[in-house]
Amino acid sequence: MAANYAPATSGVKNFFSPQNLKKDLPASIVVFLVALPLCLGIALASGAPLFAGVLTGIIGGIVVASFSGSQLSVSGPAAGLTVIVFGAITQLGAYPTFLLAILLAGVMQVILGFIKAGTIANYFPSSVIEGMLAAIGIILILKQIPHALGYDTDFEGDESFQQLHGGGNTFSTLAAALSKVSYGAVIVSALSLVVLIYWPKVKKLSVVPAALVVVVIGVVLSQLFEGTQFAIKDEHLVKIPVVSSLTEFTGLFVFPDFSQIGNQDVWVVAITIAIVASLETLLSVEAVDKIDPLKRVSPTNRELVAQGVGNMTSGLLGGLPMTAVIVRSSANVNSGARTKMSAIFHGMWLLLALLAIPTVINLIPLSCLAAILLMTGYKLAKIGLFAKMWRSGYSQFVPFVVTVLAVVFTDLLKGVALGMVVSIYFILRNNLRNPYFYRIGSHGDKKVIDINLAEEVSFLNKAAIQYTLAHLPHETNVRIDGSNCRYIDPDVLEVIHNFKHNAYTKAIIVELVNIKDKYDIPKLKELIYKPENV
Q1: Whole-angstrom distance, CA of residue 111 vs CA of residue 71
Q2: How far, in Å, CA of 204 to CA of 198, rounded?
Q3: Element at 215 (helix H, strand E)
Q4: pTM
Q5: What is the pLDDT along the chain (534 residues), one digit of tens a residue?
Q6: Which residues, including other chains, have CB under 8 Å from residue 486's CB and lie 6 or more apart?
Q7: In the CATH scheme, what is the code of domain 436-513?
């Protein structure tokens, strides 16, 4: 249960210390550059205003990170919710009505956090989480190659195999991109990759984030290419809304329609968003903890509350539903972030970009941002990870590979669900075979069989124990020892007592050692260490 109670601030209590800021500030710039096109792309694909996507990123950075106990996760509009959002806006008929659903979903998430629903994160198998990370890396590579080549039919941030708009899938988009290459975009993305790989290796240069250098190079080359055969088209540039005055800025906000509180469809959408967003958040936080260099453990119940507050704020101001997002979080980790200040700073950069320098931001080619995501994808899906999982044995490798393939060819939640099913099969299979220690000895001419039961003997062990007892040889002494047991399932106890009762028919003498007639399940508070002097 550590994931819900352990603090996530080990070694980084002073958020504003020079050591942490030295890491967090550069990382926040990288996350900002990654998040900006994703926020815009997801808003566009969802049928929502572009401002809503940026607003959601700002809230995810400043509000959610402030409440969250996770040090490295970054929240914002999620690709996994795109289909739900697009359908909900159409179904509800008006964007303000949809905002009410987001607000209600946020309230539900806060309630889920307080009732400790975040404990579900403890049951995500490691092999599935590793598979999800590798799959996201592969998806990033496959999805960003077209953008790096200058072909943008698919929106930035799409993670599903089938395209939401225009038909086609990941592979058909790749094939089309190879036949419609923009040489200007290729030059920008290729040079960006070179800088991203070699710039950090020069110690004196690494003070300046490589991603920032890449953006500067991309803007300069884009301007130089104008009027030539290498010109980068407008649709291959970032398109952030341009705000020219405070009045125009405040006019972008949309507020929920509270008159629809009795609309049944609003509540259905709210429940759907709350469940899906919570699951994606828990998966992302679990994955980020796994790649955190300091191996901190995030309090998942607190994370649900933070996400709920974020979605309530987003719904009130006109944003989109949000989750903790693995792509932005991975970029954050890979950029060397230390604390949640990186996520908060990234939200501030998004706000600054919207208010102060939108025309400059709109000069950035998507191809140089695609290069940043390609590097993030490579780091998530390294060959070494596949080798490591192979060495862990097939009970780990098979669920890992199934998760990778399922996520790549469907979407995040469906893929993880299939990986969970396969992983649970192996868990049950291993559990069924390990309910006891079996030893055969002898006493004179007679065989003596010792069966020492494990600490926990559940209903899942019933079949294995029943099979073993049914196949014990005739005319033996059997000693079933429950000295180590904390709990034995009633069904298993019934099997043991029935065996003892009928054993005389096989001339078997049964001795039960320290096996109670009834076991109570230990309460959680009994499993928490308490010092004697407290």
Answers
A1: 22
A2: 12
A3: helix 210-225
A4: 0.81
A5: 344 434 444 444 577 788 899 999 999 999 999 999 999 999 988 999 999 999 999 999 999 999 999 999 999 998 889 889 999 999 999 999 999 999 999 999 999 999 999 988 888 888 999 999 999 999 999 999 999 998 877 777 777 887 766 667 888 888 888 888 899 999 999 999 999 999 988 888 878 889 999 999 999 999 999 989 999 988 889 988 888 888 888 889 999 999 999 999 999 999 999 999 999 999 999 999 999 998 898 999 999 999 999 999 999 999 999 999 999 999 999 999 999 999 999 999 999 999 888 999 999 999 999 999 999 999 999 999 999 999 988 889 999 999 999 999 988 889 999 999 999 888 777 766 555 565 666 556 667 888 888 888 877 778 778 888 888 888 888 989 888 888 888 888 988 999 998 888 888 899 999 998 888 776 666 656 566 655
A6: 455, 456, 519, 522
A7: 3.30.750.24
Q: Provide the β-strand partners of residue 480.
A: 451, 512
Q: Rounded to an integer, what distance in angstroms lies between the CA atom of residue 137 and that of residue 195?
A: 20
What's the Cα-to-Cα distance from 178 to each of 15, 185, 231, 376, 385, rounded to whole Å? 46, 13, 18, 22, 29
Rounded distance between C-alpha atoms, residue 59 and residue 78, angstroms: 13
Residue where the block lists tokens 């404990």: 119
Which single residue is written with the structure tokens 């969250």?
Answer: 68
Token pair 């719904």 is at which residue?
315
Domain residue ranges of the chain, discontinuous segments joined by +: 2-7+17-401, 436-513
> Tokens 């629903």 correspond to what residue?
117
Strand partners, 76: 323
Write the single-letter amino acid at 339: T
Measured CA distances, 266 to 53, 82, 263, 306, 473 (Å): 21, 17, 5, 22, 65
E-strand ranges in 274-366 read 322-325
Question: Any residues with CB less than 8 A from the CB of 531 and at least 6 apart, and which?
Answer: none
